[in-house]
Amino acid sequence: MAIYIVINFPANYAMDKLGLKYGILIGASLTTFGMCLKVLVNVSFYYVMVGQLIAAAGQPFLGCAPGKLANQWFGPNQRVIATTIATAAQPLGAAIGVTLPLL
After folding, report:
1. CB 72 within 8 A of CB 83
2. Residue 40: how many CB atoms within 10 A of its CB?
3. What is the DSSP letter of 74?
4. What is the pLDDT of residues 23-67, one digit of tens each?
């Protein structure tokens, strides 16, 4: 959460300048690269720490996306429900991703 506070403002600035698509790609790339580093836990625990920091730096890009999506694509009277659905889709997708391989 401390990294989120620090990276939140540069992430919002980057998403405003580069656009929503590239902001989400940056966030997904950082998160994926961080998770790939965390897999090297048997080599050294430092890989886990660095991987966690990189993955945490990608989260503000993904966390700010629903509000920006609603602001760009929906009218003023539709923004609340669009933000709610997009925000709820993130943990729902994670839950599906965790349970689906078990089937």
Report:
1. no
2. 14
3. S
4. 999 999 999 999 999 999 888 899 999 999 999 999 999 988 888
